[in-house]
Amino acid sequence: MTTQTLFKIGTTSGGLVLLSALTPPVMRPKSTFSPYATVVELGDGSKRGIGSPVATWHWDFLPQAQRDVLRTYCPGVSSEVFIQTYTKDGGTIPKRFSCRMHWPVTEEETQTSRALDFRIDFTQMEAIA
Amino acid sequence: MAVRAATADELLHLRTDGQWSKLYLAFPQPAIVFKARVNQATISRNMIIEITYDTVTVGAYTDILKDMTLLVGTTEGGHDRGIARIRKTCTDTKLYLGETSEVKFYDDAYLTVIDEYGIWARMKYVASGSSHIDFMDRDIAYTDQHKYLDPVPVLGPDRVLFYQGTLGGGNTISAYPDASDSYCLGSTITAYSWSAPGASNTSNMATATPTITYNSPGTYGISCQVTAANGKTFRGRRVVVVYDDTDPPVSDFQLTQCAGDFDAGGWQFRIDMYDNATLPVLRDRARVILFSRDWYGDITALTDTNISFNSSTNTIERPSGLDIFLTGMTIQVSGSSAHDGVYNVVTGGVPTAIVVDKPFTVSSSPGETVTIRVVNGSTEVSIGQVAGCGNIIASGWIAKEDLMLDVDGGVASFTAHGPHYWLGITPNLISGIFDIATDPVDWNYMLDLTVAKGVWDILHWKSTCTRMMDVIMLGCDQEAPTSESASIGAMWDQIKGMLHGDLLAVPCCDRYGRMYIEVDGQYVSIGSRAFTSVMTVEDYDREGEITLERQSTPSVSAVDLTGVYFTAHDGYGVRGLSPGNTLGRHGTINTIDKILVTSQAQCTELAGLILAQRNNLYPSMSFNLASNNKLVDICPQQQLAVSTDASQSPRGITVPNSIFIRNVTMSWISKDSYFTVGVTGEPEVTIVPNTVKGDVPEKPDDPETPETPTPWPPIPPLPLPNIPEFGYGYRTYTWVIEDPSVGILGGPYIARESIINTVRAHARGTGTVEFNLERRSTPDVAGTDMLAAELSADSDGVLLLANGLATGYLPVGSWLHVDISDVIGTNPELVICVEVIS
User: Fold this and answer.
1) B266, B497, B819, B838: least buried by Cβ within 10 Å?
2) How far apart are CA B357 and CA B348, in angstroms?
3) In this complex, which of A42, A49, A52 lies closest to B543 when CB atoms are compared?
């Protein structure tokens, strides 16, 4: 299995940077992706996926310095960013998106200069070439 | 203009997974065309119609156009002293304003004219003196405006263009307005002339469908002058708001409510704003357009027998047509015996081959029926009724503001309403027009008056509506003897009253702010109905269940409808009863008077349709569409076919399958960025209950069923009830008298002191009728003539007596009668109309 390491982030579509190329380099996250935010039940009993594509990047722990470099992309609660991440059907080919990045709003759990169970959500993911 | 059904591709999009949207607000920022200062030492606060200016700092007076908006403030650009309308072409010293008593002008006040066209009333003005000549908008004298009507530009809605990227250089974005639905009552449109200041390029500007291109963000006015075959012209104005990534629209707000309601007459939406509520764009009554970028699931698919798979190059091949699959797409192959599966397109966009990311174990030749479709892809497309405006959810002007003050910043909530609301708070004087068969000589008469012409007169001459919004009238060309509002009041109420009283028609504004005037679809003859069904709502189009209201006990036992068949300037009474001469078992009796109809047959059927609608077994049906569906709207009247199964109902009910849409609620789930659409409809009534033709004792028979004429019996007093106590206002009493051979005609009881304002009389036939108004203390006892001398009405037309009848005073407790004893010649009909002020 190919290791998925081509996660990127940037403030412009042309300025995407590998997480591993940031200063300091940010560890590879566990990622999820859903092509729609929720599911509604239809009148015939079937279901429809609806809402914007969403993704998450999750780290069981993240050193404070790496957390801080990600924070520069989202100084507030949310911000418009560009990312490259993996989709379910995309296999080993990452895809690029314009999206809204949401910083955790709950108090971050920290331990010895590490953020624990750290998660960043991405919504309104618009695929870009 | 007409409602269209969803196309096959649109239905596919509406039924896809992954629908979502981004919401935005557009606040058009109209250009400043002129700035100056007031130069007038003494200024009245009452009935201001012009103001003298100097110190021009921006523009020239020649830049100022009729119906632009004037801001008056204590600072440059401010409007704290008031807002007015430019009434007519200005001069190098004076601005001419729509009459106002609320703007607080003072010497040196700042004047700013902006390129904005709002909803304003235009007052009728009666010059003092003996002539009592009416002028429109202060000084527009009547010439031929009610013989040759101005055309109505129908240019479509204001538009919002959002370029993804940066405009400039070769990056442009275009608007494609369409004026082909413009019209002229009594004539036809012959020419179009568009203007688009600020556009980087234009084409086809002398056609109905120009192309207008912009290369930078901003608010742009566009206009089109339409010319009619009768020689009249009129220029309509709209706004195009252009954004790009460097100048984006407002996006940080919460949409908390958005709905259109047929009964209310239009759309409204409510937004919450936080730290950005101080934006300068948020001025009072600011124009605001709620719009979105919308994504639906990708419906790209191809099914063919000519598809092959090449294992050596990992390519899917076809002679042509594969370029619909682009690099980065995820595709699913089905129907192949060896290659079914999900692949990612490594190299796409090529007509003959797709390179995918997974190897094929074997190559295969064409022959199998293979389908390739995109999965989990999304396509940005906006689906709406108006081409180029599918991104608009609703539009209006900010009317109401709720402020929640809190230490953490609070919330400002704004409610924006469509034109129906603003016309509902725009006052108008009494509006009244009379039909005439010859050329009118003043503003009070209209050649060959119809319902549509009467409403047009309000929307065109007594307001600025036809300048800045689409006004579309459907099926309202029934001839009418008069077009009158009941009282001074809000323009919307006047229009509604006139339309409902004449035709059971209603005005309604769609999500774009276009006004439609139509007869309620339930009252349209079943054989003439041609309403578009936007789509068939299948079970899988709905989220959850259908809610159906059932009215098992009728609420109306009988409808007694009297109508007037008015044609060639003559009226005939007709009457229809439903369910017949016997009342129904339950319900109230509904008596409806003076509806304009085209025949006895229509009157009879209409009585049945009204009864059927009011006793509709299923008055209401509601459900939630699980899609971002902006095709459905409350007007123009449209239908949805609803697919249901009796087995889904515990009552085993067979549900009617067609509804008129009465309410559309766009529910925005901000967390997940998607809309669902709540729809409430009125199931269509298609079965007319029993109906009979009713007797019309004091009327001749209608011309469709001629019978042998019989002598008329003595004319009984009109069964008018006592007039209840009202406040000050005008009342009009009309007597329509067939064969005025003899008579004293009973009239209303005068419950307040009143003054006769005008008397109009019109005899049809040969000869003249002399008459007088008589005041009686007791209905059956001769009284006193009100008029100094007998008045004569003859076949020449109308006798109009203006104010000042010396004997026109009507004391409390008297009865007003008409004495028509003196008849010369043969007069089949006499119409006397007395207007009193009480």
Assistant:
1) B497
2) 11
3) A42
Picking from B269, B167, B251, the residue whose alpha carbon sits closest to that of residue B213 is B167
Query: Beta strand B471-474 with B515-519: parallel, antiparallel or unpaired?
Result: parallel
* Beta-carbon separation of A44 and B539 below 8 A: yes
The lowest-confidence range among B425-429, B718-722, B823-827 is B718-722
Q: Residue B390: which residues within 8 A CB-CB, separation 6 or more?
A: B294, B381, B382, B383, B384, B630
Those residues with Cβ within 8 angstroms of residue B372's Cβ, 6 or more apart along the chain or in another chain: B301, B302, B303, B307, B316, B325, B331, B332, B333, B354
pTM score: 0.83
Round to whole Å and give the CA distance between B13 and A127: 17
Q: Which of A55-64, B40-49, B541-550, B720-729 has the lowest mean pLDDT?
A: B720-729
Question: Residue B25 forms beta bridges with which residues?
Answer: B250, B290
The answer to whether the CB of A53 falls within 8 A of the CB of A82 is no
DSSP 3-state of B365? coil
- Token code pair at residue B385: 């009724």
Please check whether residue A43 lies inside any domain of the structure: no
A71 occurs within a structural domain = yes
Please state the separation of Cα B93 from the chain's center in Å: 38
pLDDT in tens, B734-788: 677 766 666 667 767 776 666 666 676 666 666 677 777 777 777 777 787 777 6
Instruction: Output the six-digit token pair for B538.
Output: 């299948």
- Which pLDDT score, from 0 to 100, does residue B559 have? 95
In a domain, A102, yes or no: yes
Chain-centroid distance, C-alpha A100 = 9
- The beta-carbon neighbor of B626 closest among A40, A91, A95 is A40
Range of the domain at A32: 8-37+51-128
Domain annotation covers residue A84: yes
Domain with A80 in it: what CATH number?
2.40.30
- Report CB contact under 8 Å: A36, B17: yes
CB contact under 8 A, A43 and B544: yes
Question: Would you mind telling me the total number of residues written for chain B in this entry?
Answer: 838
- Counting the structural domains of chain A, the total is 1
Confidence check: pLDDT of B386 > 80? yes
B407 pLDDT higher than 90: no
Query: Is the ipTM beyond the 0.90 threshold?
Result: no
Q: What angle do CA B429, B432, B438 make, to 5 degrees?
A: 145
Q: Whose structure tokens read 């504004």?
A: B509
| Chain B residues touching A91 at Cβ < 8 A | 344, 357-358
> Do B224 and B205 form a contact (C-beta atoms < 8 A)?
no
Which residues are CB-neighbours of B194 under 8 A, at least 6 positions away?
B177, B179, B202, B205, B206, B210, B212, B222, B223, B224
